[in-house]
Structures are given as C-alpha cells and as structure tokens.
Amino acid sequence: MTRRNLIRASLGTVVAGASSGQSTKKGSAEKGNEVFDEQCASCHNAYSSDRKKGPGLKLLYAKEKLESNGKPVSDANVLAIVEQGGKGMPAFREGLSADDKADLLAYLKTL
C-alpha cells in the first residue's frame, strides 16, 4: 500500500468513527460476549445460523451482505443496525455506550 493510500485509509477510519459517534478504539471480544449475552442473545443465535426472532449471527463477518438490509458486512453497517434497529429489532443508540458497541463489534467478528 502506498503512503498516500495508507493515509487515505487512516483518514477514512477516523472519519467513519467520528461520524458514528464511535472512537476508533478496538473493542474487547470478551466484554462484547457479555454485552451480547445481556442484550442480543434472546433474539439472535451466536454460534448458529438458525433464526430466533432475528437472524443467526454465526460467521457474520464472513458473509457478503447483511440479511436485514442487503448492505455489505462492515463495521459501519453492522453498527448502524445496532444503533438504529429495524424490522422488529430495537435501537441501541442510547442503550449501549460507545465502549459497549466497540466490544460488541469485536465479539461479532469472532463468530
């Protein structure tokens, strides 16, 4: 990667983090597992693609598109669903701290 592209990529990460209200801090998958168990597990399977109320999240980040809206799987698109909810899912914009959201994304990447 050229220096120019590296700078662009870094700026894009900072801008994406700032626009979503998130810091670019990496989350803790272990803490994210706790957030998932408390907030998400009643509606989503973590280690299965079987549906509960919402889609199973096994291999979420290996998928090409999100089931709920057809957008590419990315931190920004997953975070948007967490924050805005939709199709029966409640919004967690106010219900989870920025750290909780970063931790949850880190955990989802391990599935």
How would you describe this structure to a colleague?
There is one protein chain. With 111 residues, this protein is mainly α. The chain has a single domain (23-108), classed as Orthogonal Bundle (Cytochrome Bc1 Complex, Chain D, domain 2). Helices cover 44% and strands 0% of the residues. The longest helix has 17 residues, at 3-19. It is globular. It starts with a helix and ends with a helix. Residues 1-23 have low confidence and may be disordered.
How would you summarize this macromolecular structure in one to three sentences?
The protein is mainly α and 111 residues long. It has helices at residues 3-19, 29-39, 75-84, 98-108.
CATH superfamily: Cytochrome c-like domain
What class would the helix/strand composition place it in?
Answer: mainly alpha
Q: Tally of extended strands?
A: 0
The SSE order reads HHHH
**CATH architectural type:** Orthogonal Bundle
Helix content: 40-55%
Estimated share of beta-strand residues: under 5%
For the record, the count of structural domains works out to: 1
- Number of helices, counting only DSSP H or I runs of 4 residues or more: 4
The low-confidence parts are 1-23
Shape: globular
CATH fold annotation: Cytochrome Bc1 Complex, Chain D, domain 2
